[in-house]
Structures are given as structure tokens and as C-alpha cells.
């Protein structure tokens, strides 16, 4: 497998939990391995008892009748229960007298000259914009926006597309949807217009909430322009967006591009956010949602070209996420905590652990708008120092970047407020784990390496910080209530330390309920491959390879399907290939992942060109064409899909049945000298030799 995995195999350091008080926590929620093991056994043997108690921590308008109805692969959790996600994150805290507490601390990216409300201790000569929103602020603002959405015709069950920068209004938009029972479909601001249009069509969404722009690394991301480009694509597909609501964030558009509320773009009516909420009522009660009503869709890459709309429902997702957030991060209200997850809300990590999981636990959540290297490479450490962040959650790719930037940057900052560090998104190599622990956690903070997926809603395997000893590179043991295993293709548990497939054998409340509009793909992707060897009931298959060591610890080895994790973000090889083939000069393309020091994996694309196109345009397979193709992919899919390497080939190696031999290409891309696999089915063996000669 990857290079990361080789080093993981040799890893045998163990770090024991320390007493909560040694870190400044009041206590651990779970404080011994024995307690964890007893609770885990209980949660698996009596799921109704265990999950009933967890769900009781939420506020319900009507209590459920039955904890679980399960006919594989369909789960219904807390059947008959009625609740509202916004109520659980916001209103109930106001009702309980905590309305004046801080819910969100937000920091914008631009740094401006120092102002009188500058936060003491900044190492910069200038200060960013900071906003604090209380639960009451959130209640008022979500109510106003929810009223505005209703007046634009948004109803319970509709899907609202959200394409926004990391500003408080993004949280408000999400919660406002939940307030009125509309599902949100958030699209990461780094995606291109094609991605917006594809997702809006798939979700049958008729309204888009966006902003004029967003700040990123000192530049402005033209969000409104991207949406307008998407509108043109949508019109070509005969899909009408009725309304676009635009938050004014950057004010950068020249007068010729500006609009007034009520102006139209084709059949779409444009609205400024500030106009829409100005007239809107702040009395807009949270609607009663059925436990199994859709809460959101979130699109993720799959092994076919089309992204999958992962569908999460209300009761189970909330119950699971409030528990996993509380236990993995030891969240406690009124204990001086400030939680910071650096993920963008456009990804599931942001949904579950910037917003829902943290707000439900009544711990303030920090949102940062921009890049870690603006204006300088120590921006994150400066934020931790100034805001006194207590728990920090980021990705291995970010940690590897910080390592590269040097130990002196974190050393310049007082990060003594930190009590716990988390990581998510891809396997963390032990060197990065140790660096994180030493240089950010100063040898003091426990590291929680949380393994999960968009589909699982929340953490599936993670250390519980007071209970489970950690080993660098391992996500340790299963979350309470999660029956995870490493099995072979027959569904049999395999001996310790052998590589196998990561499965979940029983339903859990945060599990996806479907792929929007694609039942077949839902079954074949997740439930069609591995079964209980005795009962033949399907297991949930994560598409990750893993092993379990002699202590039962999981070591995730990475994806076994055709998706690549680039900087912690999933990309389907097909998505990138389709983008390449949409270039007029490209005949065929195949994409594979190659290990990369910072990104984890990078994209290597093998491309065969149309000779007549080359001739007609007097072009050559050279660096300028490589650059053009890289930019083309970035434009079609988004910057994170930009290939690292483009290798031109006269033809791509195929089996006799016409399948591109990806594993072989992976070997070529990785410089594996000897062809290790059976190549007898190769259609044209000489193709391989020629591929090897085209090093960039
Ligand atoms: O391969 C696993 C990897 O990320 C995949 C899920 O990606 P996504 O749905 O985008 O969600 C990312 C954030 C939850 C998994 O199938 N992955 C995620 N976390 C870890 C991980 N691999 C190893 N260790 C992790 N902690």
C-alpha cells in the first residue's frame, strides 16, 4: 500500500491517558479502559438501552416509540420521535437561560490596521475582524433568514443549495434551513460551476444561497460569479433555479456586475441577503420534524464520475454527533472551553464538528474564514493564542504542511490553553502524529485520531481521551455503539495484523440513509459486497482497507476503490478523467494516486492526445499543454483536483475486454521497476514500455 502504511506497520509506541486535572479538564467523560470496554459491550448488546439514553440528551417535541427498526440496509432510528435540529443547537439553550453565552466565535481572514477592539496578545501589527454570536443572536438571525426563505417559497422537504465562504452567515443559513425543515446541501467554496450545477440538478434544488465573494489566502474567491456561471449551465440542462440569495461579504464586484434585489438572471430572481432579512420576521418557530426526515445532503466523490448525495436524517444524526463530539473531545459546557475545528463547513467534518456536534453540547465553536498561511505561516497558532482555544481539530495534510514550515513558528506562540488535539481525514503518519503532540500539544495534550466518513455522520473509531491509550497512526478502538471489524471478502474476521476490509456489522444512528435518488448505488456501494458469513445479512463496507493489531487497535490502510484522498479530500478518478477528456485535445485519460509528502496522495494523470487535434492546432505534447490540462481540470472540477503530474502516452494499457489497467499505471506512476502483476491480458505490451519513457 502507501508509504505511510509501511511506517505504520513498525510503530509500537504507546501513550497512556493522563488524569483530566493534569490538563485542566474538570473530568473525563469516560476515564478508564475498563469503563470504555464495559460501555462498549453494553452498547452492542443492548443498542436500544444505550441509544435510548443518548437520544434522551436531545430535546424532543415528541418522544420516539421505538429506538430502532432495521431491515438491512434500511434503518429507522427513534421511530415516531419529533424534534428539530436548530432547536437542539440554539433555541433550547436560550430557553434554558443560556441565551447570552457565546455560540460562535468567528475570525475573518483579512487583517486590517489595529482597532480598539483588538484582542490582546496578537503578534501581528494588524488585526482581523472578529465576531461573537450568542445563542440568542443565532436564534434571532436564523429566525429572520428562515422567514425570508419561507417567503421565497421554501417549504419543508425542499433542498436548499448553499455555496458560501466560512462566515457566520453560513452557519445561520444551515440552521435556518433546519429551522423550517428544508434540507441543506452545502457545496465547498473551492468547487467549480460545473460541480454546483451537477449537485443542484441531482438534489432537485431550486434555490442557492451564496456570497459575492470569500477571502482565501489574500485573494477573493468569486462565489457569486461561479453561481452565475452555474446558472447558465443549469439553464442548458433545463433546470431552473428560482432564487439566488447573495450575502455581501467582499463588495468587490464592479458596478457593471452588481444587481439590485429583484433583478433577474434568466428565470432566476436575485436577492441580497441584507434586503431579504431586513423585512423578515424574527418570530419563526422551529418546525417539528420526524426523526427520519432528511436533515441534509452532502455530496462526496465516488468511484463513478457522478458525486453521491449522501443523505442524513434528523434524529439519528443528531444523537450520534452529540455523543461522538462529547466523548472524543471531552466537551463540557460552562467549563471555559473553546473548540476549534479548522475544516471548512463544505465538508462533513465541518457539518458535524464545527456546527452540530459542538453547538448541541453548548460549547462555543470557533470559525476561521481563511487560509493557514495568511498573512503568515503561523496564523493558526496566532488564533489559538489570542482566542485561548482549548481543543483543536485538524487534518494530517495540514499537520505535514506545518512541519514543513518549521518548529519555530508554533514555538513563538503561547498555546498553553490547549488541552486536546484531534486529527481526521486520512491516515496520519507517526512522524506527523509525534510532531503534532510535541510541537502543538507540547507533549501534554492527548491526540485523538478520529476515523470516519461522510457516510458515517460522525466518529467510527477514535481514542476516547481519558480512557484509551494511543498509538501514533492508529485510530484505536471503535466508538461506543459501533460494531466495527476487519474481515475478508467472505465476511470472516481475520487474524490480528492481517490486512482486510473495514466493515460495520450493525446499524448505528449516524449512518447514511441513502444516496439521494439512487437506491441501487446505495446498495451496491455499501451493502452489496460483504455479508455476515452465517446470517448472510449485509455489512456496511467503508471501502477502506485496515488491519487490527493484537490489542484490537485499527490501523486504516486507505481506500480500496477508485477514489483518491488528496489533502484529505476525496476525489473520484472518474471525475478527474471526465474533466480531462472534456478538453478537445484529449482522447483518453486515466488517473491514479501517487504518494505525496504533504498531500498524502497526489494525482498523476496518463493522457493520450488526439493526433489530428495536435496537428490542426500546431501543438505538441509539451509543458505548456501539461499546464493547460492542469488548469482545465482545476476549472472543471475545482483547484483541489488539479493533477500534480501529467504523463502523455500514445495509448493506455488495457485488458482485452477494454478495461484500463489502473494497477499497472499505479506501478508505473510510482516508479515500480518490475511489473508485479499478471500482464498476460495486456492488449499491447509495448504501451507499458512507452509509458515509462514519458517522465515529466
Ligand atoms: O479513507 C478514509 C479517510 O477518509 C475517508 C472518508 O472521507 P470523507 O467522506 O471525505 O470524510 C472525511 C472526514 C471524516 C475514509 O474512508 N479517513 C478519514 N479519517 C481517517 C481516514 N483514514 C485514516 N484515519 C483517519 N482518521
Strand arrangement across the biggest beta sheet = 12-13-11-8-6-7-15-16-24
Cα shape: globular
Helix content: 25-40%
Q: What is the typical, i.e. mean, pLDDT?
A: 93
Bound molecules: adenosine-5'-monophosphate-propyl ester
Tag the structure with descriptive keywords.
696 residues, alpha/beta, nine-stranded mixed beta sheet, disordered N terminus, binds adenosine-5'-monophosphate-propyl ester
What would you note in describing this structure?
- The protein has 696 residues and is of the alpha/beta class.
- It is 32% helix and 23% strand.
- The protein is built from 22 helices and 31 strands.
- The strands form eight sheets. The chain has a nine-stranded mixed sheet, sandwiched between helices.
- A hairpin with a 7-residue loop joins strand 15 and strand 16 (308-313).
- Helix 3 packs across helix 4, helix 5 (85-98) crosses helix 7 (168-180) and helix 5 (85-98) runs parallel beside helix 12.
- The longest helix is centred in the N-terminal third of the chain and has 17 residues, at 135-151.
- It is globular and about 75 Å long.
- Adenosine-5'-monophosphate-propyl ester binds next to helix 12, strand 21, strand 25 and strand 26.
How are the SSEs ordered, and which strands pair?
Layout: H1 3-9, H2 20-23, H3 33-45, H4 47-55, E1 66-71, E2 74-79, E3 82-83, H5 85-98, E4 102-113, E5 126-134, H6 135-151, E6 159-163, H7 168-180, E7 183-186, H8 193-202, E8 207-211, E9 214-216, E10 219-221, H9 223-236, E11 243-247, E12 264-265, E13 268-272, H10 273-278, E14 289-290, E15 294-300, E16 308-313, H11 314-329, E17 339-341, H12 348-360, E18 365-368, H13 379-387, E19 391-394, H14 396-405, H15 408-411, E20 420-424, H16 430-440, E21 447-450, E22 484-487, E23 500-504, E24 514-515, H17 519-527, E25 540-548, E26 554-559, E27 563-566, E28 569-572, H18 573-581, E29 586-596, E30 600-609, H19 611-616, H20 623-636, E31 645-648, H21 662-669, H22 686-692
Parallel strand pairs: 4-18, 6-7, 6-8, 7-15, 8-11, 11-13, 17-18, 17-19, 19-20, 20-21, 30-31
Antiparallel strand pairs: 1-2, 3-14, 4-5, 9-10, 12-13, 15-16, 16-24, 22-23, 23-25, 25-26, 27-28, 29-30
Helix pairs in contact: 3-4, 5-6, 5-7, 5-12, 6-7, 8-9, 11-12, 14-16
The site of adenosine-5'-monophosphate-propyl ester has 21 residues, from helix 12, strand 21, strand 25 and strand 26.
